[in-house]
Amino acid sequence: MQISPGRGNNSGANHGTDGLKASQGGDPRKGREQYNYEFAESFFSSNDQLNTCALDIGGTLIKVAYLSDHYVSGGGQQKGKTQFLSIKIRGSQNLYVHFFNVNELNHTLAFLIKNGLMRQKIFLTGGGAHKFFFYIIDRIVKQEVIIRRGVSEECPLWVSKCHHCETTRTLSVELHPRGSSLPGGHTHEGVPFTKAVLDSFPACETVRIYLVREKVKQEGEGSLPSKAPYQRVDKSTDGGDNSPEKELQGELILQCSRKDEMHCVMNGLYKLLSVKKSVVRYDLLIKKEVPVQVKLPYEPFIIANIGSGISILLSNGHNKYRRIGGTAIGGGTLLGLAQMILQKVSFEELIRLAAPPGRHSSPGRLSSPGRHSPPGRHSSPGGHSSPLDLTLRHVRPDAACTGAPPHAEHALAASFGHLSNILKMKSVEDEKSIGQAVARSLITMVSFNIGYLLHLLARIHGVRRWDVSPFFWLS
Question: Among 174, 260, 417, 460, which one has the highest count of C-beta atoms within 10 angstroms of its own C-beta?
Fold first, then answer.
């Protein structure tokens, strides 16, 4: 594994704002597959941009996005396409998403390295992007050194030079992989590459690692200073021919950036809004996803970012957004309860269990439920309610005076409230059926809570457009 440009199935995500106008054309007769190809093509337009992978380290899960010609499971075995977790890019290449528990960071990095999915550019988001920033960089660089040197153990890394650009918040580091001493008993010129080096630049968002091949120094050279030499670069010299970064020797082997999660969510949403048919709603009459034609101006709108908890943002324009609410009942609640009830179950398995037969969500889209009726008026999409839930038809005699419409007999009355069915299923001991019912009830319970909160906040702020991300929640 050499994380160099142009190697293998390079993946990428452009976080810039220029040159990102998506293609609005395409033959509609070719369906969703052709559309996804055009959508992704507009975001991944060069090999340099494709040389990227990304990790979102949240409170409950680590989400990994990578580009490959096949889906790779956690055990390293190839699988067919995961229909709701892949987007066709070009040719046989697909963008895949894989999930790990938040305590499996080592396993996550090993998964990327072992399967040749690590790339030269890595983007990190989520709370863990700051907590594990150095650890991830150090682990990747040391693994790269082991492969390049052909050895089986790690060696210390030493910083000989580093340049910090305050304008771009980029730290460029020149590293030498050597032993603890040089021939003749002389010490290294530089300081050990430790977390303290990155902590010296708390505002740094991007770290660029240059690896210098080993050289045997002449006797009498070098001493171990207490601080690595670095130079702050102002805007006038950054990126030019005289930039101090040009003086760094060695090969650029890694560029790791940590990004603000909410900023990425809003930027990604605006990019999706420029793509035809990227916003869909679920039509309750025909029970199908229907593309929504986005009419400008799109603002104001609110979006629910579903993670371990839920953050709800109000946008009044590009880069003009603020948090207006949230709830602690979110993805962390869902997965935590699932682990307690179903024992060892992954997030992907939970989504598959809950999905009705033949129905899968589509990645790269935003759901726009703002035109739906308020939550609770209907059962889950397609009428596939869980047998563990109590619906209005079960309590209709007691609810005759509540004003509920006659056609709302499948409306959810109580999550996990159908005790008689629960006892029947427990006596039968059909593990698969129980798992499907529990998964569907859990997702319905959490989703309805989010829907109610979204509906109320939309009414409070006078907003008629609201979105939910990620989309596969509505599967």
Answer: 174
